[in-house]
Amino acid sequence: MKKLITPDILIEDLVREFPELVGPLKDEGIVCLACGEPVWGTLGAQAEEKGITEIDDLVARMNTFLSATELTEN
What we know:
This protein is mainly α. The chain has one domain (11-65). Helices cover 53% and strands 5% of the residues. The protein is built from four helices and two strands, in the order ααββαα. A two-stranded antiparallel sheet has the order 1-2. Strand 1 and strand 2 form a beta hairpin. The longest helix has 19 residues, at 55-73.
């Protein structure tokens, strides 16, 4: 089973460990890469900066995406 993300995950770690989330997070308004490099800070901080107040819901959606991706890979 794949590790799950939390609001405290650093964007740099998220990009390295879960590159498949870069697109879905961009669709949610959270940019993970700028000029080819990960942005600084945590997922929670980036979400707050973008005005996303339901951070736990965002994290749950991303973890659901990871779980679904894992199922299709097996």
